[in-house]
Automatic annotation (TrEMBL):
Keyword set includes Repeat: yes
Composition-biased stretches (Pro residues): 710-721
Originating species: Serilophus lunatus
Lineage: Eukaryota, Metazoa, Chordata, Craniata, Vertebrata
Membrane protein topology class: Single-pass type I membrane protein
The name this protein goes by in its record: CSF3R factor
Signal sequence segment: 1-27
Domain Ig-like: 22-121
Amino acid sequence: MARRGAGTPFLLQLSLLLLLHPRGTLGCASVVVGSPVVPLGSAVTASCTIQSKLCHGLEQGKVQISWMLDNKPVAGSQHRGPGGTEVSNLTLPHFNHTQARLWCCVEWNGTKQRVATAEIRAGYPPAKPFNLSCVLNLGDYGLTCQWEQGANSHLPTSVVLKCSGSRTQAVTGCTPQGGHSRCTVPRRLLQLYRDMEIWVSASNALGTAESEHLCIDPMDVAKLDPPTLQSIQSIPFQTDCIALAWEVAQGTEHMELQCELRYRAPEDSAWALVPGISGRAGTAQHCGFLFGTRYHFQMRCRRSSALASWSEWSQGRNYTTHEKAPTGKLDTWWGTQPAGAGGRLEVQLRWKAPGWREANGRVLGYRVTLSPRRRGRAPPTLCNTTHTHCNFSAPAGTTRVYLSAYNAAGESAATEVVLLERKGQPLAGLWAVPGGERSLWVHWETSAAPVAAYVLEWQRVTSVTSEPGHCSACWQMEHDGAATAALIQDGIEPFQRYNISLYPLYKDAVGVPIHTAAYSQQKAPSHAPKLHLRSISKSEAELYWESMPVEMQNGFITSYTIFWANNIADVASATVNPSVSSFVIRGLKPSTLYKVHIMASTAAGSTNGTSLTLVTTVLDDSEIQFLLLTLGLAFVLLILLLICFQKNERVKEQLWPSVPDPANSSLGKWVPAALQEPLLVPAAREPGPAAISTVTVLEGTPGKQAGKEPPGPAAAPPALPRPYVRQEGP
């Protein structure tokens, strides 16, 4: 069974090869379409004819024809044709493929077999080419034309450039290669100094389109070589005018040329253009240049024809105009201190350098005087410097000084600086928002009193100092008294805090400043503050930390969060205000180890600090104090009791009664000495403890106390009774 099953696929493959044999396929099936190229979206008709007699394997049985468009089945209608053929007709009402293959299939052995095919393409007629222009190259006199093709037709399109003379037929001038929209007509097909007609023709299976015809003399569109600038110089009596001289390209001396001049200063973003210069003149003059300014000049030419092409711009040439004394007034700002013991007024004067349009050259320095300069008379000079700030002493009562700038050509008119007092009305509000990574927008509320101008000061805040003023250039003046906002761009860095002050300038006074602080961009702090332990008990721990340096904050600190956890991972946290620098953790367990750390947060992120390990105590301080106090009191009471017992005889007698010493008793005195010797026990008896059963005490003479004898003569010792000792057995 296995061998039989394995042979079945082989027989199917063999039958399929016989069916698809070239003689069988080409001879027994064919597909005919109404048109192999149709407009996109139009209807397509096709028919498939099967000759069963010529198809091996289909001689017997009914033939069933089906259709497939690429790999998608489509339905057709089948009928019997002449000569025993089977015919299937297909209509596709909307053909929306730009290219597809239509297959005719037959049912054979339970499967669909493709026996014939036809390829169908769809698209649009070619679009009309436009923007045709041509340039004649004087090197090889070839005419290079370029154009824009238009919309894609989705069909193979043939594009050629055609040309014709006044007496010649239209010929193909050139064919673009590689899908480009440009080609070059060779010199042999051109008629120089005569009008020619040139156009672009595009053709595909659905039609032909031509561009607008261009009628030109090839020499009118010749692209010339650029001219050469030879010299530039200022006109002596009119220093804002210059004279230029140039030489046209070789071989164009006999042509009528039209030229253009362009120039710009380094500070200019766009070129200034001077049109309508006659090329054959060789020289030209132009006025309106700034004094003491370096310019870059270039020139180009073309034939005097509307269709002529411009040459490339010439090599540039630099020239600096003559200088002139600076013009205009300078923006100034000042600060004063009251006159000291010497009667002098200390003034800190700052100003902005003139713009390059007002400087009229390179400024060499600035001069501050007590009075304006008069003819033939030099005023006293308070300061002469190359910087834009100056500190000097003026006589007490000075209300005005005069500032001027000078260059190699002269000195500007003096700018009067009125040293007004800072006692005017302050503004109602001031705030700042980021204007970019390196800029700040400052907004304020206007004053009820009319304001002539505003002065903005800003200073980067550091941990060393937070007072503004040590940056002499960190200020700007807003001349519009009605303004409510200004953009600060000079010296602004991201992640740095700036203190901003705003001064309104009134007619007769300077307003009291208002202040704010801002960041142009914020991020998480560089590090968090370090925690320190101030005190600890069995249930509480007091922590404190020092403020971070402002350079490390990278933004406004919004909060501090303290986290603590014990060894069984009971984690808790608390968030405090950024103005707080200490915190008390409550509810801790006695004699437990905790790990604590702090997190500092800004609006842009947070940073964790290092961990602090602490262990709570067994008892609180109050409990320890109470225990020590109790022990101390007990010890004191004990000492007092001992002292009392020692001093009180009655208490002493009750607690420690007096026991007589037998050695000092009366008995010991009247027993003979012989009887007081040790009693010898016979050696025949075993030694053992003696049991005393009866002790007889003999009382003395009545009225006498033991141990006390009245004085008198010595008496003979009384006769003592013999001791009676009773011993019992062991």
